[in-house]
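Following up on my earlier thread - several people asked me to post the actual chain instead of describing it. Fair enough. Here it is, all 61 residues.
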Amino acid sequence: MENKIQLGTRVIMKKGHPCGANEWEVIRVGADIKIKCCNCGRVVMLPRIEFNKKMKKVIEE
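Reply from S.P.:
Thanks for posting it. Predicted structure:
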């Protein structure tokens, strides 16, 4: 499965954020991926391998 994650990509994670949202925006791509909650603005950085495991799907816009 080839994953085309770019800046600005919106993704849905398997586990929802405590604020109630499960939609995130990618704000940094590299060995680590930084994502920002689209509801409350919380920023989380995950290693790419962990991000790929926890991502449910990419939102097509």
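The longest helix spans residues 48-54. That should answer part of your original question.
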